[in-house]
């Protein structure tokens, strides 16, 4: 009778008292049972001004959560939250510090599309053959980085060459290198 009596008493208590709290930060008799940890890793957020579409976040993602979708003049960086383990490698390895994990971890949704975080960038088109290249921001940033590290003696020549050949795909650069005078043999 002791075990059944305790069980009956517990059932009656649960029927008469509130045993749930508001999620995620509800309080119940003055105590906070659920809270968002400062610095916690939750939903991803892109800084659209900083993101260059370089795909380094995709390359380091252990769960293949991040994908790069190239469709004609657009490149989309897409994060699927349903597969993410929120390790933060994308955030730590982004060279531009363009992606971060926010403390927002409530993203329940009725559609699968709501579980995607996306950032779309414009891609450059080859002036010769018309094929699509990398995003404009990525090409400009690569040029800036190389110019910052290059030897002063060849910087001026390299600046002029990159103004020309970043508008061409790698195949057209090879074919037209002598015509555009951007070939590397001129340094010898």
Structural overview:
With 188 residues, the protein is α+β, with helices and mostly antiparallel strands. The protein has one domain (44-187): Alpha-Beta Plaits (2-Layer Sandwich), CATH 3.30.70. It has 6 helices and 8 strands; from the N terminus they run αβββαββαβββααα. The strands form 3 sheets. A 4-stranded antiparallel sheet has the order 4-5-7-8. A two-stranded antiparallel ribbon has the order 1-2.
Q: Helix content range of the residues, please?
A: 25-40%
* Domain tally: 1
| Low-confidence runs of at least 5 consecutive residues | none
Sequence of strands across the biggest β-sheet: 4-5-7-8
- Assess the beta-strand content as a share of residues: 15-25%
Q: Supply the CATH architecture.
A: 2-Layer Sandwich
The radius of gyration over CA amounts to 27 Å
CATH class, named Alpha Beta
CATH topology: Alpha-Beta Plaits
Describe the main β-sheet briefly: 4 strands, antiparallel
N-C termini distance: 98 Å
The shape, in one word, is elongated
